[in-house]
Amino acid sequence: MSHIANVGRRSWRVRLGIAVLYLVLTIGAITTIYPFLLMVSTATKSHVDFAHLDLLPAYLTRMPHLFVKYAEDRYANNLDEMNAAYTSSYAKFEDIRPPANANSAGVRALTDDWAAFARSLPLIHQRAGFGEHDNAPSLLLLRYRQYLREQFSGDIARLNKEWTEENVAFENVTPPFERTARREWVPENSPKMANWIRFKATLPPDFQIVRCADPLYRKFLREERYEDEIAKLNAAWGTDYQDWQEIMLPRTLATQPAPRRADWEMFVRTKFPLRILQVDASALPAWRAFLAARKRPGAATAVFPDPLPASGQTLTDWMEFISRAAPVSALTANSAENLWRASLQQRFGSVEAANTRFGTSWTGFEEAVPPQALVDWRHVQANAASLRGEFATRNFRAVTNYILLHGRAVGNTVIFCTLVILAAVTVNPLCAYALSRYPLPYAYKVLLFLLATMAFPAEVAMIPNFLLLRDLGMLNTFWALVLPTLASGFSIFLLKGFFDSLPKELYEAGILDGATEVTMFRRITVPLSLPIFSVIALNAFTASYGAFLFALVVCQDPKMWTLMVWLYDLQAAAPQYMIMAALTLAALPTLIVFLFAQKVIMRGIILPSFK
After folding, report:
1. CATH number of 407-606
2. CA 24 to mean position of chain CA atoms
3. Ordered alpha helix ranges (H), 88-169
């Protein structure tokens, strides 16, 4: 019985030891996989959330975080633009919260009304959203460049000729700047701007961002009039505003109480965008007198400039006229929100009727605030699945497009890896076979020399190799990439040990049958050595696929750059999340090769001769 008890205790200890071993191996596997999973997770993020170390990005499961991602993307990570659109004062994008009560009948009616009105506005009141920021992928740029490819039939030379530019490819074309916040900005009269305006007309409604003037008015009051102290404004205006966001820009001077008129007039004359400023015909005599005082030809019969030029004497005269000579009673601030308020008043007649329809509590139509945050939130709710898919894959698609459209990275890498693998399984086995089959008295010295090459890092030989290849005229060729890697001391040593373990009787039988060394190598050695050949081939593949520094040194022509060199070039300017996407995609070929060849590789590892 005691013997059985001892056996039972030993069996329990063995099981416990095995369990502990499996636990240690599991922990080791987790510590190996976790960094890779973290890299994949970061590759699906953007500027607003890439610093969060969560394996499952929050926007994939939580709607508020998806709304933050959408706001960041739509307003190109520009907090001022987002606050202007939302009539908010968030300090950072991470603080954004979806609007409350967004699904009530009144709110839905209000958002539908504003969205329909925004779609009806002329493009002069709108700018394109989803623009580029922080070198991140941009939906707008992708659409714009695809539009240009179709417009110019893929001929970049034709585009350059029409626009007088020097773009290398469509991927280098950038949109014209829209300085919509500047007073004097007007779309220039150029082929590029005309093409851009036509492109903007093709964009979906969610790509159009209405440029409002209320935020400009508040900024003017805070920074130039009242030193960011709302108490000073209340004292001057006789009001009791608690927040700057409560202040709206009246449409005309007549709607302003007396204490506020000077501020309104100064803003409209010096800050309000001229392209949306309406000047009544009653100011035409003053305009002609202004031109006559400046001795402009044709002043007596001059009319208001329409359209307003983007530059030149006429623009300068008009700016000066508005700022100094135009009758203030003739000026109307026709901003987008003021046009909407006028539309509401015309359609509903009374503010009570509008309140009944929208569930609001306005005391006047001047209190109506465009509900852009509600419009965006409803859009996110209605398109959550497609937005999540877009955000999760955008960085990977951007990296893939970059690789495929720049140079010949994929083709160069495939050719380079193929040549290196063929060289590794040809030169190294032949050398090892000769050392194994023929017992040379100096064989150990040869092996010692080969192993000595492993004692020095590859960078030591980089400059001599470069100088030699330069003298031979092989720079920027595949010869420069492949020749220095033809032989590997470690591979020859490994193969020789494996060949030494093969049965000698097979070779003796081959000799008796009259087989040559080439025949025995091909019919006996190679078939029995496939596992170790696979290990050598995999080592050659990983070394060539991951080669960067030497590949960059000997092939400085971008046409000969391999994948790793192009990814390095991408990383020089790309944000961290795009770098993670690039590294994830770069790791996939090695992972796929290992998954498909792991059985053969494991056979090579467990063989006693390999040990």
Report:
1. 1.10.3720.10
2. 39
3. 105-120, 139-151, 156-163
